Amino acid sequence: MQTTVKGPVSFTGCGLHSGKPVHLTIRPATAEHGIWFRRTDVETGDTMIPARYDVVRQSPLCTTLVNDAGVSVGTVEHIMAALAGCGVHNALVELNGPEVPILDGSAVPFVRGIMQRGLRRLSAPIRAIEILKSVTVTQGDASATLAPTDVMRIDFHIDFADSAIGRQSKSLNMSNGSFARELSDSRTFCRQDDVERMQASGLALGGAPGVNAVVFNGDRVSSPGGLRHSDEPVRHKMLDALGDLALAGTPVIGHYTGVCAGHTMTNQLLRKVFATPGAFRMVTCSDKQAAMLPGAGLVWDEIPAVA
After folding, report:
1. Could you give the residue numbers annotated as active site?
2. CA spacing 20 to 30 A to 210: which of 218, 236, 292, 294?
């Protein structure tokens, strides 16, 4: 059955790009509500923003949602990954600023907060999008594909000039709590040159190496404390992909493969899937299908504990 959180779950931090403080609360919602954001700091007009692929404003650095009134919320990918990875189908996410707090740069603070509060089952079955035929988008050497499979799987491949990152690949069946166990604590990352360029453009103002981001400089990891995983960058790209795919509005049963892909490409892929006749169908999940979705089988003791 569909789920929501048992009670409010709150987080306080700063926006990665804006650097502004923000307080965020995940609140329970009814069945069929889906995931919505609400800007509590906006006093007039429509403050509700759907967590949906077709309201994404294209951005290579983060995923930003904008409603018809022009009210936006940015950097939603980590909290969306946490909600999907915990199996939360309905929630109202309230925040008093334009950007979700970056916290430690990963999804694990959201995961631990959600699971500590617990989930409540609702009186409606889970529906999912089942991919029926392969759909691909490409840009140069980068690509993103969704292909048919009976479980959700994510494969990702990256290739960076910085030798401290280099080429990394990982494949993961997203069943049995694997998101929380394998991906949730992997942090956002960038190259030192990117930091300087972004901050010169008024972005990444809340970034703090080692605190909420991993910074690479050639053959060195510049961030204090080093890496949480030897392949933390590709794991984080998979985390981002799950969060961006969650904007389909329901779980996706399909095999996602990303090759040097980012937020924009994953969103373009979802748009192409929904625009392609016969590419998908909506299904009411059987018990067997529901047991294989991200979030099912999640065990508290397997969630990484990080400072």
Report:
1. 263
2. 294
